[in-house]
Amino acid sequence: MPITFQALFAPSSPALKFAIKTVLGGGLALWLAMRWGLEQPSWALMTAFIVAQPLSGMVVQKGLARLAGTLVGTFMSVVFIGLFAQTPWLFLITLALWLALCTAASTQLRSAWAYAFVLAGYTAAIIALPSIDHPLNVFDQAVARCTEISLGICCATATSALLWPMRVEQQLAGQARQAWQNGLQAASAMLAGEDEARKGLLDSLGRIVAIDTQREHAWFEGPRGRLRAKAISSLSQQLMVLLRISRSVRRQWRQLDPQQAGRLAPWLGDVRAQLASPDSASLLVLRQRIWDAAQAEHISSAEHYCLARMALLLDYAMAATQAMDAVEAGRAPRDTAQGLAVHRDWSLALLFGSRSALAFLVMSSFWLATAWPSAPGGLVLTCVVCSLFASRENGAQIGLSFLRGIFLAIPAAFLVGQIILPQWSSFALLCLGMGVPLFLGALGMAHPRTGATATSYCLHFIVLVAPLNHMSFGVASMLNSALAMLMGVGAAVLAFRLLVFRHPAWLGRRLRAATMGDLVRLTRRDLRGADSWFGGRMADRLMQLARHASELPATERKRWDDGLHSLDIGDELVHLRMCLAVAQAPLGGAERDFLQQVEAVLAKGPAVGREQRLDGASEQFLAALQRQPASDPLRLAQGAVLQLRKSWGKWCRAQEDAHGAA
């Protein structure tokens, strides 16, 4: 069965509940707006559909973000009209700059609060553009829009919370368990050096980042939701470190000769078996056995380092298991972890903002040149689509989905608004005439593959019908509005097609430069939160690199390998600094001098012929460590220094494989 027919005629039970809640919330908002005599009741109805989400916490957060963005956009619209009402070109340029700024800011946030910047951008256009001919009415328009939007938010939130509430924190518990199981499986695969380890790593990183991004919705579902959100934050951090430690164990394993590997093979098998079916008590017992084996006098330094890394891996496996138990029990973890950091690129964000501003100015030029009365409606649609999708890699495809939604809304709105509603005169009949098409649209909104088209259909159907207490019907007016919508969305899609800034090779170079900057900062950054800061940003970059790997030539696909090498070096740096912090040995200036030399080498980046740049500094620092009284943290620090040097040399040699000898 085609996806559209499946969504409309064979919906799932959650989809039916979502559609019923959405239509009832919109109907309540429309009734109250018309009952109170608001100027544009359709805005209350549209808002209820815009903030509709299947989970209650998501509706609350999105509603609050929309409300905050609406208030800011309303204020800015009044300011722009007050300053530039007499100079249309200056007004439009200022509005374009505001749209670019809001688009850039929303690009940098990976949470629902980015929606506040989106709303601040196009709300200013929604209020200011129709008021340019009547600037004295802008304050009344601003108050009316805020009232109608706030009413829609309240009604959508109430229906979502009262009718079949689906809590985010309950859904996240299942997703967290899947991420936990997937993370342990990926760690086990990396220990064995399996071919699928990279794919498993990418899949695990994606799941970890997804649950860490969604956990903030649970904060709006009461005390239990907030406790579960804290536990998920701790779980994300523990899993991220677990994956990196498993790679460090594998790196250390490669340093063993065949005899040493044969002696440690049973321990490695036991660790993999425990990761397959983790149990806190069994993990603790195995960890103690491995640590005792690491203290034996007859083993070599390489074996000691490898066993110590296995013990550390089991420590984080136990921590992740305890965090998973806290998530399912809905209690706060013992340690309050910070959320994962994300990669931010302000220059790229400004480029996306510039794309929005350019599309807006092109449509503005068309408006000023033609003086078409319906052009402001198309200009508003350009602002909306650019604000929402200018930073998306598939922005053009989503824009085309919006166009399909408009094409579907036009005949439906013509049938309801121009043929049926002129014959009916009560609110009940109005709800019947609009409710059936909107219910079908809400069913489509519940399906991921038809969501964009169905959302566009619902919103533009409402705009074209435009329910009022005293409605006026006109085919010419409706067709003009529909044509303006098509032109506005078409201009945005054309901008997305023509102005492509996210070229894979250029993006790969920028990600590598940002990664090198993070490695340099990691030599002197405060250790508190360093794991989540570096791990989260690297997870984001690795997923972006993997997403574009297929679009790159063979020589450029090494960017993914560069990301893995960076991850390894960052992991060794954090591990080294943590061991030194625990040891608290009186090293004098040796530690500072070594980290400064590492920083200088990393600042220049890997290249052919630079693989020995860390050798001298490493030997001096190892000599300083060996002069200190023996302790477990210092022995682990020595292993980290050796591994850091080897990882750097391997990365430099990889540049020759990728780009040839100098």
Please work out how many helical segments DSSP would assign: 25
N-to-C SSE string, H for helix and E for strand: HHHHHHHHHHHHHHHHHHHHHHHHH
- Secondary structure class reads mainly alpha
Number of strands: 0
Global Rg: 29 Å
Residues in β-strands, percent: under 5%
Tertiary shape: elongated
Unreliable spans: none
Percent in helix: over 70%
| Main beta-sheet strand count, sense and barrel state | none
The end-to-end distance, rounded to whole angstroms, is: 58 Å
Oligomer: single chain
* Rounded mean pLDDT score: 82
Give the structure's gist in a few sentences.
Helices cover 77% and strands 0% of the residues. The protein has 662 residues and is mainly α.
Task: List the main descriptive attributes of the protein structure presented here.
662 residues, mainly alpha, 25 helices, 0% strand
Structural write-up:
The radius of gyration is 29 Å and the shape is elongated. The chain has 25 helices and no strands. It has 662 residues and is an all-alpha fold.
List the helices and strands and how they pair.
Blueprint: H1 3-9, H2 13-35, H3 41-50, H4 56-84, H5 88-108, H6 114-128, H7 138-162, H8 168-192, H9 197-214, H10 222-253, H11 258-276, H12 280-294, H13 301-329, H14 346-370, H15 375-389, H16 395-420, H17 427-445, H18 451-465, H19 475-498, H20 504-522, H21 530-548, H22 558-583, H23 590-604, H24 615-626, H25 632-659
Helix pairs in contact: 2-3, 2-7, 2-17, 3-7, 3-18, 4-5, 4-6, 4-7, 5-6, 5-14, 5-15, 6-15, 8-9, 8-10, 8-11, 8-13, 9-10, 9-21, 10-13, 10-21, 10-22, 11-12, 11-13, 12-13, 14-15, 14-19, 15-19, 16-18, 16-19, 17-18, 20-21, 20-22, 20-23, 21-22, 22-25, 23-24, 24-25
